[in-house]
Automatic annotation (TrEMBL):
Residues binding ATP: K12, L13, S14, G15, G55, R59, T162, N163, Y168, D171
Cell compartment(s), UniProt: Cytoplasm
Region (Involved in allosteric activation by GTP): 20-25
Function: Catalyzes the reversible phosphorylation of UMP to UDP.
Enzyme class: transferase
Gene that this sequence comes from: pyrH
Residues bound to UMP: G54, D74, T135, G136, N137, P138, F139, F140, T141, T142
Activity regulation, short description: Allosterically activated by GTP. Inhibited by UTP.
Keywords (A to Z) from UniProt: Allosteric enzyme, ATP-binding, Cytoplasm, Kinase, Nucleotide-binding, Pyrimidine biosynthesis, Transferase
Gene source species: Bradyrhizobium iriomotense
UniProt name for this protein: Uridylate kinase
Domain named Aspartate/glutamate/uridylate kinase: residues: 8-216
Subunit record text: Homohexamer.
Alphabetized GO MF terms: kinase activity
CDD domains to which the protein is assigned, alphabetical: AAK_UMPK-PyrH-Ec (cd04254)
């Protein structure tokens, strides 16, 4: 078996993806498919941590636009990410692979608190580690969380699983002339204003010299393909 290109990664998944075709909540068939992909990535020999958004349940920005304060709305969104992590953790464990959810919030009855030491321990044991609760602070996205946690735990890359196969100059679903990039620097991604990841995440990745690989999660096995160096995506690095 070929060794993975990256030995330790943080995979960023959108919460919306877990809703499947229903558009809201958690679609179990989709969660099971994601669990299969994460397990396959782990079986390649990579140490796998996962950050999941919460948009399938609550989007803090949308909640705050209806009268709730932004910090409260963001906290609700961060709690939604914990729910998603628990759903994916359960699916992974049901398939016979050990997993563990670590949260940015103190909630001992539900999950263990995220610490670097705990993350290192469980990754070394071969568990898939789900990182819930965002950064624990309002005004930061789960994109930024993924880069922050990757820097904290010494990951070699952030794999941004999305609904398009890379970074485009415009939305390819709306603009047929949109150009797809094979490679960008962090600075080019920030200056281009590409919406696939927020500018704070790109800036932190630049500061910590972390590559971000943007790819489509739509095809089963896409995570493993990226780890084997044969996947189709955009590399944002340097």
């Amino acid at each position: 078996m070929t060794d993975p290109v990256y030995r330790r990664v943080v995979i960023k998944l959108s919460g919306e993806y877990l809703a499947g075709q229903q558009g809201f909540g958690i679609d179990q068939a989709t969660v099971d498919r994601v669990a299969d992909d994460l397990i396959a990535a782990r079986q390649l020999g990579a140490e796998v941590a996962v950050v999941i958004g919460g948009g399938n349940i609550v989007r803090g920005v949308e909640v705050s636009s209806r009268g709730v304060s932004r910090p409260t709305g963001d906290t609700m969104g961060m709690l939604a990410t914990v729910m998603n992590c628990l759903a994916v953790e359960a699916a992974i464990e049901r398939k016979g692979t050990p997993a563990r959810t670590l949260s940015a919030f103190v909630m001992p009855e539900i999950s263990e608190l995220f610490t670097r030491a705990a993350a290192h321990k469980y990754l070394a044991e071969g568990r898939i580690v789900l990182l819930g609760g965002g950064t624990g602070n309002p005004f930061f996205t789960t994109d930024t969380t993924a880069v922050l946690r990757a820097a904290e735990i010494g990951a070699e890359a952030v794999l941004k699983a999305t609904n398009v196969d890379g970074v485009y100059s415009a939305d390819p679903k709306k603009d047929p002339a949109a150009k797809r990039f094979d490679r960008l620097t962090h600075s080019q991604a920030i200056e281009g204003g590409y919406k696939v990841m927020d500018a704070t995440a790109f800036a932190l990745a630049r500061e910590t010299s972390l590559p971000i690989i943007v790819f489509s999660i739509a095809e089963p096995g896409s995570i493993s393909a990226i780890l084997r160096g044969i996947g189709h995506g955009t590399i944002v690095a340097g």
